[in-house]
Design brief:
single chain, alpha/beta, 3 domains, six-stranded mixed sheet, two-stranded antiparallel ribbon, 26 helices, 52% helix, 8% strand, globular
C-alpha cells in the first residue's frame, strides 16, 4: 500500500488516468439524499481549508495497454462519489456549451472527462462504471459531450441495459439543479457563479486517497469498507464474497466469470429482489437454524473453501423457484396443478417466512423426490392457512417458529404438514370463525382482500366459461362510498353506513382508471359504469336494481361461503392423493 495522500478532483481526473469499477462492485445507487449532501459539501467548501469528503481507495493496475496508455486504477471504495462528481462535471460542460461558453465546455471535457493526451487512446472516458451502468453513461457522454469522438470499444456496455436506472435519474437531478443555479430568469448564464462552483469542485474538495499495490488483496479490502451514505446490501456482500475467491492475479478470469455467469444469474431475478433471496436460501441450507442478521456470516463460513462456480451452482438449485414465487414464470418440470398454486403465491401478499418450505416442496417434486400431487396439496394447505389468518387480521408474528423447521419435520408429506402447521399458539380459523368475522366485521383494511377478489373473478369467469383476465391489475372499489354522500342517504342512515361500508360484500374489483373516476357517484351511475368493467364479476352486479344494506349483507354471506370452499378448513383436507 502506498502512502495515503490528499487529492482533489482536479488531481484525480486531470492526470492521465482512468478509474474503473471492478466486477464485485455494486451498481450506482446514490439518489437525491446523497446528491444533496454532496452539494452541501460543494457549497460550503472553504477556499483556505477545503472540504473533506472522506477516503477513496484505488488499486494501481499500471499502464494496461502499454507505456503510452493512461494509468488504470480499480475503484475499491468511492465509486458512488467519483461517479457523481463525473456526472456533475459533465453537466457543467453541457451547460457551458448551451450558453456559448465553448472554451469552458472544451476545457472541462478534455481535462476531466475524456482522455486526450495520447492519440492512440483518445476519446476513452476517464471513468468506467460497473458493466450494468456503462451503456447509460456512454449514452450520456455521447449526447451531452458530442464535441469528443468517444471510444468505448475497450469497455462495452450491456447489449440490453436496465430500462430505468439510478444513474440516469441522478443525471437528470444533477443537470436540473445546476441549470436552475446558473441560468437566470432571462436565460443568461451567470458566469461568476458558474466559475466559483467549478473552482470549488476542482480545488476545494479533498479526499484521502489510499492506493493499493499489486500484492494487496483488493477484494478483501472492499469487503471491509462501507461506501459513504448507502450501506452495502446483502447482494453486494455476497457478490464480494464470491469474487474474493479469485486470486489478485486472476482479474481477467474474474471479469469473464462475472460477465458470462454471475451477472447472468443476477439478471434472472425480478428487480429489487436479489438481496431477499439470500436469507431464504440460508434458511433452507441451514434448516431454519439461522437468523436474517446471521445469514451472511454463516454463508461466509460455509463458503470458506468453496470455489465460485460451486457456490453459483448451489444458489441456482433454489433461485428459479424463488423467482417463480416473486413473479410467476412457468416451471417447465412441474405439473400444471403445481404451477397453478405457485402462481397463486406469486399474486398473494408475500409471506416470505413460508418460502423456504414452499421452495423445498417444489424442488422435491421437480426432482421426483416427492409426488407432484402431494406437493401441490402441501402448497394448498399453506395457502388456506395464510388466507384464512389474513382475512381475520391475525398477524404473521410467530409463523417463523412454525415454518423454519416445517420441511425437516414433514419432508412434504401432507398429513404431517397438517399436524405441524397448527400449534398451541398459531391457529387456523375454522369455518365458523371465518363466517362470523367476515359477515360482521369490516374487511376493507385487509391486504389479502385484493388477492381474494382477484381469485373470485377468476372463479366467476371460469364457471361461466369466460376468458380469463390474467394480466389486469385490480383495485378495490367501495360500491357504497366511504363518505356517505347525499345520493345514498335514501337507502343508508349513518348506522347502516357504518355497518356495511367495509363489509366484503360492498367491495368489488375495478381497474385503477375506472375506480378513480367513480368516486361517490350514486348507484344508478355506478351500475352503468360497472357494465363496462373489465371484470365479469363486477359486470354482473350491474343487474341489481338497487344497492341496499340487504344486498350488501347477502353478497357478503355468499362471498364468505365461497371463501370457505376456495380455501378449505384444514380439518377437511384429504391428505391422500389419488
Amino acid at each position: 500500500m502506498k502512502e495515503p495522500s490528499v487529492v482533489t478532483p482536479d488531481n484525480l481526473f486531470q492526470a492521465g488516468a482512468r478509474y474503473k469499477a471492478p466486477v464485485f462492485q455494486r451498481l450506482y445507487v446514490w439518489g437525491k439524499q446523497e446528491f444533496e449532501s454532496l452539494i452541501e459539501d460543494i457549497e460550503n467548501a472553504d477556499p483556505d481549508i477545503g472540504q473533506f469528503l472522506g477516503a477513496i481507495v484505488i488499486k494501481d493496475l499500471g499502464r494496461e495497454k502499454g507505456p503510452a496508455s493512461p494509468s488504470s486504477y480499480l475503484i475499491i471504495d468511492g465509486q458512488q462519489r467519483l461517479t457523481t462528481l463525473y456526472l456533475i462535471l459533465l453537466a457543467l460542460s453541457h451547460i457551458a456549451a448551451q450558453h456559448n461558453r465553448e472554451n469552458n465546455s472544451t476545457f472541462i471535457t478534455q481535462t476531466y472527462l475524456a482522455e486526450t493526451k495520447s492519440p492512440q487512446f483518445k476519446g476513452w472516458p476517464k471513468l468506467v462504471p460497473t458493466l450494468q451502468d456503462r451503456q447509460t453513461l456512454w449514452s450520456l457522454l455521447e449526447q451531452y459531450a458530442p464535441q469528443v469522438e468517444w471510444n468505448f470499444a475497450a469497455e462495452p456496455g450491456e447489449q440490453k441495459p436496465r430500462a430505468q436506472d439510478k444513474l440516469s435519474y441522478q443525471w437528470k437531478r444533477i443537470y436540473e439543479y445546476f441549470k436552475d443555479k446558473f441560468v437566470d430568469a432571462s436565460g443568461n448564464l451567470q458566469d461568476d457563479m458558474f466559475e466559483e462552483s467549478l473552482r470549488s469542485i476542482q480545488e476545494y474538495l479533498r479526499f484521502i486517497c489510499i492506493t493499493l499495490e499489486e500484492t494487496d488483496d483488493a477484494n478483501s479490502i472492499f469487503g471491509r469498507l462501507n461506501a459513504r451514505g448507502v450501506p452495502l446490501d446483502l447482494s453486494d456482500l455476497v457478490r464480494n464474497e464470491v469474487f474474493t475467491k479469485f486470486k489478485t492475479t486472476d482479474a481477467a478470469k474474474a471479469e469473464k466469470f462475472f460477465d458470462k455467469k454471475w451477472h447472468v444469474f443476477e439478471k434472472t431475478f425480478p428487480a429489487e429482489t436479489l438481496s431477499q433471496f439470500f436469507p431464504v436460501y440460508a434458511y433452507i441450507i441451514f434448516r431454519g437454524k439461522v437468523t436474517k442478521s446471521a445469514a451472511f456470516p454463516r454463508l461466509q463460513k460455509k463458503w470458506k473453501s468453496t470455489n465460485p462456480q460451486s457456490i453459483l451452482n448451489d444458489l441456482q438449485r433454489y433461485s428459479a423457484y424463488y423467482c417463480a414465487l416473486v413473479k410467476y414464470t412457468k416451471l417447465e418440470d412441474a405439473s400444471p396443478e403445481l404451477n397453478e398454486i405457485v402462481e397463486h403465491f406469486a399474486r398473494m401478499p408475500r409471506t416470505t417466512v413460508t418460502w423456504p418450505f414452499l421452495i423445498e416442496t417444489i424442488r422435491a417434486a421437480v426432482d421426483r423426490r416427492l409426488d407432484m400431487g402431494e406437493a401441490a396439496l402441501c402448497l394448498r394447505i399453506v395457502e388456506s392457512f395464510l388466507v384464512r389468518r389474513a382475512l381475520l387480521g391475525l398477524e404473521p408474528t410467530g409463523l417463523h417458529a412454525v415454518f423454519k423447521s416445517l420441511w425437516a419435520k414433514t419432508e412434504g408429506q401432507p398429513s404431517e404438514v397438517l399436524k405441524n402447521i397448527v400449534t398451541a399458539t398459531i391457529k387456523c380459523p375454522s369455518n365458523k370463525a371465518l363466517q362470523e368475522v367476515l359477515t360482521t366485521k369490516p374487511s376493507d383494511s385487509r391486504v389479502i382482500v385484493k388477492y381474494v377478489l382477484s381469485q373470485y373473478e377468476r372463479s366467476f369467469s371460469k364457471k361461466r366459461k369466460f376468458d380469463q383476465l390474467s394480466a389486469t391489475a385490480i383495485t378495490i372499489e367501495h360500491v357504497l362510498p366511504q363518505n356517505l354522500a347525499a345520493a345514498w342517504t335514501n337507502e343508508f342512515n349513518q348506522k347502516a353506513h357504518a355497518e356495511c361500508v367495509g363489509l366484503l360484500g360492498n367491495l368489488v374489483a375495478l381497474s385503477e382508471a375506472q375506480n378513480k373516476s367513480l368516486q361517490d357517484q350514486p348507484w344508478k351511475e355506478k351500475k352503468k359504469r360497472f357494465r363496462g368493467s373489465n371484470f365479469k364479476s363486477t359486470q354482473a352486479l350491474a343487474k341489481k336494481a338497487a344497492w341496499t344494506p340487504q344486498v350488501i349483507r347477502l353478497r357478503t354471506r355468499e362471498l364468505a361461503d365461497w371463501i370457505a370452499k376456495e380455501w378449505p378448513d384444514l380439518g377437511t383436507f384429504r391428505t391422500k392423493v389419488k
